[in-house]
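Budget justification note: compute hours in this period were largely spent on complex prediction jobs such as the one shown. Inputs:
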Amino acid sequence: MKMTGAQAIVRSLQEEGVEVVFGYPGGVVLPLFDALYEAEGIRVILTRHEQGATHAADAYARVTGKPGVVIVTSGPGAANTVTGIANAYMDSVPLVVITGQVATHVLGTDAFQETDITGITIPITKHNYLVDDARDIPEVMAEAFHIAGTGRPGPVLIDLPVDISRGEVAFSYPERVNLPGYKPTVKGHAKQIHQAASLIAKARKPLLYAGGGVLSSDGAKELKELAELMQLPVVATLMGKGAFPEDHHLFVGMPGMHGGKYTNYAITETDLLLGIGVRFDDRVTGKLATFATKAKIVHVDVDPAEIGKNRSVDVPIVGDAKSVLAAIVAELRKMGAEPKTDAWMRVIDDWRGRFPFHYHTSESAIMPQQVVERVRELTKGKPTVFTTEVGQNQMWACQYLRITEPRTWVSSGGLGTMGFGLPAAIGAQLGRPDHMVIDIAGDGSIQMNSQELATAAINKLPVKVIILNNGYLGMVRQWQELFYERRYSSSTLPQDCPDFVKLAEAYGCFGIRATTPAELDDALVAAFAHDGPAVVDVRVEREENVFPMVAPGGSIDEMLGGIPGGPVSEMLDEELLEEVWE
Amino acid sequence: MKHTLSVLVENKPGVLTRVASLFARRGFNIDSLAVGTTEDPTISRMTIVVSADETALEQITKQLYKLINVLKVQDLDPGDMIDRELVLYKVSALPERRHEIIEIANVFRAKIVDVGRASLTIEATGTGDKLAAMEDLLRAYGIKELARTGKIALARGSRDA
Ligand SMILES: Cc1ncc(C[n+]2csc(CCOP(=O)(O)OP(=O)(O)O)c2C)c(N)n1
Ligand SMILES: [Mg+2]
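Corresponding output:
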């Protein structure tokens, strides 16, 4: 069938089952927006900024498992997606970003709104294309979706010169793609799987360390099966939250810089660390030389380059987390392996009892942790997706929420992008219309994309933004307090500028403020009950810190703040340990 | 430790940029890089010389494989490869010293490819060692300009199936 390049893009989106596109028009992408006008089955969400569109598509992908799609114009439009693409790249989120480009005959001449976006995005995309022949469109689109969504997922960018989108295509969508240089390994190697299973069967103090790879492979069920079969305790990284139910007795928290003391003790003491879809990120490992030094390491990842990158490994397994977990479970069943972690769990439970997260409440001031706890209690049992901004708010969300379902936690991990949470909430709401979507926000971060309140209001997306308004770039202030002699250089924000309630109202959202503990629940309940988007401006204790904390570059079992407890060597209950070693 | 990587890539626009940018951003140093099409015009071979220890080399290889356009990466065994580089030297050569320079070129089986009033241009091919030795001798006369192709290499025939 003959059609224009732009129509071929739209047809390809339909072939890929795309239901939502996030975008922002401009000169050279007008043919494409024209083809989208009344395109069957595709809803176009006009955000208020291309960064917002990209984060929204990112979150949409995280909650649905389908690639998020972004369409923007050339030059400034394309450049505005860069932060969003980098964010998706760091967190391995499948995106297909289509950017308009100036016509091929003026490419390279610094034409109006020309930016070399394929050049700019080489380091932050899994792959990118500059289409120079309209006839290539179906193939390029099929490849882009295939590359974005398979193996280790990631963003793919397609740069589409305006004359190409006006060109002619005889459309036929390829059944399969042919990429000789791209063949991700899904199934783990049988010998390695056997080795991992044998180590698990023997280990006295094993620990599963689960990350985003478990979620992106949809392997939460298999992870739970393995954990329960062998009674293995599980820690989940910030990216892995939701991969294992956080109310499960085998769940041992989030490791790393602001993780639980008990979690970091468990990592330091384990004799077998099973990293599944993780990348031994520095925010998790702290000082590498002292990270999990007593453990044999099994590392499962679909990206071979992650294995051995930061930490040498005893059993490397290249493969998709879901499939490898299932194979390990099958192998353990075949071996008739029995759980041996009873004593080890008692050691961990002892730490968990002694070193919980804690904070002091006050009669007059609302504590930020308390806000997160109240949000948790008020949403208990109700299908909820949480997004976060970045900073203290994000870390308290990690510490105090209980994520129990896969793909219901959306947070900027690798890039730590302030301004992610609100557009992410919008994308998540579109992907999960039946869920309540809550953005745990900071007063600084929210201002980086607050224009998206318009997108929420206009599209009737009832997202709830809970601002932990401390009048500071709180995490920056915390570091300045701890490491820069309280010199609060450029980290103070007036708590009342802007007036977030008025800002919400200006966009047609519901706005409410809580300034005392007595007002907190009412404000939250009112926002949750409102049938549209809502903003809660919670004036919290201004100088509260996130504890415990691993000092930058420090060992993870030596944490500042929190309930006093030294390195793990001093924290072992002798009697319990004897049992573990018996 | 120096490694000679032979990297087969799809012959498409931008592939060289992708490879070069990967080396730069991951902090791997390229000593030399030479590219050209192979017997199959849709495929190019990049011969890349890098200094890297075993761990870094493993990362480089794995990261290269992540590029969609990279088909094959081989770390050539120095004892089992043929490697060559071509160099052009423009050497200061007043008429009275031409003879000596031509003599040096002959010893190294190099060719005189241009003669100027005060210079000679020599074309030399060979392995790194040979070219270094020759360059050392020529330096005494004054090398005015120098251009080199970068090393190209293939595994020896015994490696073939
Ligand atoms: C785009 C961007 N710029 C700067 C930073 C550095 N940074 C990390 S946390 C933070 C403070 C965030 O302030 P706020 O949103 O109020 O959150 P709080 O820590 O106060 O909860 C800053 C500036 C960042 N992560 N992202
Ligand atoms: Mg703040």
